[in-house]
């Protein structure tokens, strides 16, 4: 039976607690969901199958959402659901949003971090007692007001961004940027709109505020690197016997595509991804089955240098037995396995090359710098916007794939200069001759 103490979590008629014997010892190592069954006239229970509190809470939320009796109240006269923002708790709305949407997204970890920031705000307000305006009992109705948004903003701006080790100890911190605060505001807006859009609706109100415009809160990145720094990076990554293959592939693919780091590590030659096949003149940075979002991934012409790398990866993929090919084919990989990022290798490179390790020197500096160099070398704005995914594709471009000639010419010039400064460093196998010399590449692109 559950203990008489306050349960760990409660939602509607359900609560979460340990199943204990009369002597207080645990009957089960897993947390249990409890509820009163009026038909049976007794308390019933179901195991969550886990001892982790966060996973057990998700199990309770799933049971709650699947219970028709726990749906929104219905009007006795017309039978329509009564969505009451004043009765629907913000914490419940956050839980439902994560369960039904946020946790299923590729950006689920980012969404969770932003919403945890909001929950921390509610906990701080709750701890103030009578002095706090909000807390765990805050409803969606209250959260839709500008009063809530302004209070969240004021608190958030004073909270540093922290990093913790495995023991939960803070190892690093920095001041929170206005953009990070507005990202949390935008996330809570998504939660509140999700509640109003549910079928049936769970809330009859929507937030009356918006996040501040990006131009107002984002700090313009001023750091750029030149071709000389690019050559030093590629030479470092291509040094034989140093196990820097993933960093090497990341640098080369970034130079050839000017893509965001997340899109670069997502390049794969496996046929089911439908990104590239042998001899294809274009590569689709958006793999089959991935929905486009605001960070649009473009269809790009394949520069000969990139074709060399893709062909070599495809050779290795096809050399595998069919039952060994699952999860392989990644251009940026660690012994065949995909990587989420190259941040650790990147930090080590900056340290060894004596380059700054400030925030603006993260992997994104490649995209910003290459775009700047390409523009200064004659890349036209229209071509550069399409190449970088800053311009949403029109219906015409679904049929007519852009070649972006001014950008490709600029990139070919950059590649030629890197080859001159660090001979052989751009090739996948630095110890052997390339199948595409800079002169051959230039001839292929001009034809």
UniProtKB/TrEMBL annotation:
Repeat is among the record's keywords: no
**From the UniProt record, which GO molecular function terms apply?**
DNA binding
Task: State whether keyword Translocase applies.
Answer: no
- Which keywords are on file for this protein? DNA recombination
Q: Which BP terms from GO are recorded?
A: DNA integration; DNA recombination
Q: Which InterPro entries match?
A: DNA_brk_join_enz, Integrase-like_cat_sf
Q: Where is this region: Disordered?
A: 425-447
On the tree of life, the source organism's domain of life is Bacteria
Q: Spell out the protein name for this chain.
A: Phage integrase family protein
Give the organism, scientific name: Sphingomonas dokdonensis
């Amino acid at each position: 039976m559950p203990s008489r103490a306050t349960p760990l979590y409660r939602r509607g008629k359900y609560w979460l607690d340990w199943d204990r014997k009369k002597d207080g010892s645990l009957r089960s190592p897993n947390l249990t969901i409890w509820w009163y069954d009026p038909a049976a006239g007794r308390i019933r229970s179901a195991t969550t199958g886990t001892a982790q509190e966060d996973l057990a809470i998700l199990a309770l939320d799933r049971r709650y959402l699947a219970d028709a009796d726990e749906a929104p109240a219905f009007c006795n006269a017309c039978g329509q659901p009564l969505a009451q923002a004043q009765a629907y708790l913000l914490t419940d709305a956050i839980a439902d949003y994560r369960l039904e949407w946020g946790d299923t997204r590729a950006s689920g970890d980012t969404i969770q971090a932003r919403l945890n920031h909001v929950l921390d705000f509610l906990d701080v307000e709750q701890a103030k007692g009578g002095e706090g305006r909000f807390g765990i009992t805050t409803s969606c109705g209250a959260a839709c007001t500008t009063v809530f948004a302004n209070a969240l903003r004021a608190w958030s701006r004073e909270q540093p961004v922290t990093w913790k080790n495995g023991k939960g100890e803070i190892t690093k911190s920095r001041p929170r940027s206005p953009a990070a605060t507005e990202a949390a505001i935008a996330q809570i807006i998504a939660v509140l709109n999700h509640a109003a859009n549910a079928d049936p609706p769970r809330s009859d109100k929507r937030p009356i505020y918006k996040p501040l415009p990006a131009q107002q809160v984002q700090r313009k990145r001023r750091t750029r690197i030149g071709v000389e720094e690019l050559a030093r990076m590629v030479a470092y990554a291509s040094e034989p016997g140093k196990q820097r293959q993933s960093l090497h592939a990341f640098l080369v693919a970034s130079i050839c595509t000017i893509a965001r780091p997340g899109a670069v590590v997502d390049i794969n030659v496996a046929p089911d991804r439908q990104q590239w096949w042998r001899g294809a003149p274009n590569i689709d940075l958006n793999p089959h089955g991935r929905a486009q979002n605001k960070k649009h991934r473009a269809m790009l012409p394949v520069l000969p240098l990139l074709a060399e790398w893709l062909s070599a990866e495809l050779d290795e993929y096809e050399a595998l037995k069919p039952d060994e090919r699952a999860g392989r084919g990644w251009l940026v990989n660690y012994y065949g396995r995909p990587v989420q990022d190259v941040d650790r290798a990147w930090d080590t490179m900056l340290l060894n090359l004596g380059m700054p390790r400030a925030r603006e020197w993260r992997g994104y500096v490649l995209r910003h710098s290459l775009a700047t160099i390409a523009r200064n070398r004659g890349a036209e704005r229209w071509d550069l916007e399409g190449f970088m995914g800053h311009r949403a594709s029109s219906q015409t471009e679904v049929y007519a794939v852009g070649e972006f000639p001014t950008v490709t010419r600029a990139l070919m010039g950059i590649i030629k200069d890197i080859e001159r400064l660090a001979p052989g460093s751009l090739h996948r196998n630095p110890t052997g001759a390339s199948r595409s010399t800079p002169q051959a590449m230039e001839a292929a692109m001009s034809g």
